[in-house]
Structure formats: structure tokens, C-alpha cells
Amino acid sequence: MTKAILVSAPGGPEVLEWKDHPVGDPGPGEIRIRTAASGLNFIDVYYRSGLYPAPNGTPFVPGGEGAGTVVAVGDGVNDLAVGDRVAYVSGLGSYAQERLLPADRAVKVPDGIDLEVAAGAMLKGMTVEYLLLRTYPVKPGETILFHAAAGGVGSMAGRWAKSLGARVIGTVGSDEKAEMARGNGYDEVINYRSEDFVSRVRELTDGKGVDVVYDSVGKDTFPGSLDCLRPRGMWISFGQSSGNVEPFPLAILSQKGSLYMTRPTLFTYIASRDDLTGSANALFDVIARGILSIDINQRYALADARQAHEDLENRKTTGTTVLLP
Fold this sequence. Notes:
By secondary structure, the chain is α/β, with parallel strands linked by helices. The chain folds into 2 domains: about 5-120 and about 270-325, Alpha-Beta Complex (Quinone Oxidoreductase, Chain A, domain 1); about 140-265, Rossmann fold, CATH 3.40.50.720. The chain is built from 10 helices and 15 strands. The mean pLDDT is about 95.
């Protein structure tokens, strides 16, 4: 009998329960994976709390990314075999010792990349890929603002954006996190608890504003993010760690400089097999070339997922966190 974290009803971290969870044989087009590590991400909190409804209701196994070894394959699976090292991003299901997964949602992990690194890098790393390369393709000489610069996505974004030739400004909530962000490639770091980030961004850009703002914070950074943009700049809202942005009149975008905005999600950008493999390969490439160094700053036992969620929500974690079965 294998075990998993189960959520029987939405709520706080206390609803995360370590229970027996049988896993059957893979069906056609499926693989069975023995988990080496699961990634911890804020989207896991959204599903656990009910902000994002679980597609198939409760109970459900949370967790959106993981890596492990293929232990069985179903009929029709030709490009993966027992023993392959794979990683994946899925809506739910990674907080488990073993799991079933559609084979077309898994990618092979190249030799030389540790499975813990892959598990902690997939969701955040592919998020950085689509944000920097596809949602707003960053060009040399541009200036970007990335909120939560010491977080998992922000830590990767600083180094990757620098490799593209951008000037990178980040915001953080403490001096300790500011030092971490500087070590991750940020040219300028603003502690929003001690200085007004809008005024500081304007100062750093000689009043011009930045080309794009990447914002996973939400409520606490709105509408300040808009005020950091140059005319016709783009605000990319891809999360809401501080709460949802309240509804606002679209006219505010024209009033603040004919601005663009979008609310993307990784799952749209990796919906096709080609997009998934392209994004993963781009991520593995920058890891292999040393552009990204995935710092796993916290490791928890999978059975201790409740504590991991509490620490994540209380902003006690930095960089990448993995759960180990």
C-alpha cells in the first residue's frame, strides 16, 4: 500500500492528511511513477484552500509538479520505458509515493540533472520560460520589474532575464531576501517594507518606467505595478499570493499610459506536447549551461506537508522547496 497526502475538504494546512492511497496499474497511454521528490508551490495552496476548485472534487491528492522513476507503462506508451527518469507538471497528484500520469505529460530528465532539482524546477522554471520568452519576450536593453524576487519563480527569473540582456529590478519583503535576490542576478532590489517601490522604480528609470512588470503578488502590488510602467508597457499578473486584485475599470489602463495587461497560466502555455517539451528543454538547457542554479533551500518529508504549507504561507521559505516521500 502506498501513501499520499489527501485533502477531503478545502481549508487551511490542517486539511493535509497523510493516508493510505492505493495506486492501480497504468491504463492505455499512462505510466506509473515512483516519486523521488515533489515540488512545493503557491498554486498548491490555492487548490488546498479552495480558491482553485479541484477538477474532480474531493478527496484529492494535491501537488502540481514532481519527478521520479517510471515503474510501469500502459498499452500504447512507446517513448517511455520502465527505469526512465521523468519529471512533470500536472494540475494535481504529486504529493504521493507513487502515482499514475498520462505519458504525454511527462518529459525525460537529462543525465546530469538530479531528480530533486527537476522536481523543484519544472513548474517554476517553465513559468519563467513562458513569461520571459513568450508572454513578453524580453529583449536586450529592456528594463523589467519582478515582484517577489526572492521567491521560487523570482529567484530563477533574475538569472534568466540577465542572460537575455535585460536590466532586472526586483522587490522583496526583507533585507535578507534583498541579498538573496542580488545573488540571483537582480541589478536593483527594493525592500517594499521600507521604501515605496513605485517611487523607487521611477527613480531608477529616470521617470520613464519599466517595459514590463511580472506580478505574482496581486492585491498588495496593485495598482502600484501599473504606475511602474512606461507608456504602452505590459503588466503580467500571474498569481495572487497576497489576495486577489479587486475588479477595476478597464479605463485605468488608458489613463495610465495605454497599458497592456494579461493574466496567463502555465497550463495554457504547455497544453500541447510540443509546447511542453519545448518549454522543458529550454529549462533543462539553461540549467545545464549553468545559467540557472536551482537552489533547494528547504526539504520536508512529504508526510510533513502541513508544516511546509504553513511555512510557505508565512513567507518563511525562499527559493525552491521539495517534499520527499
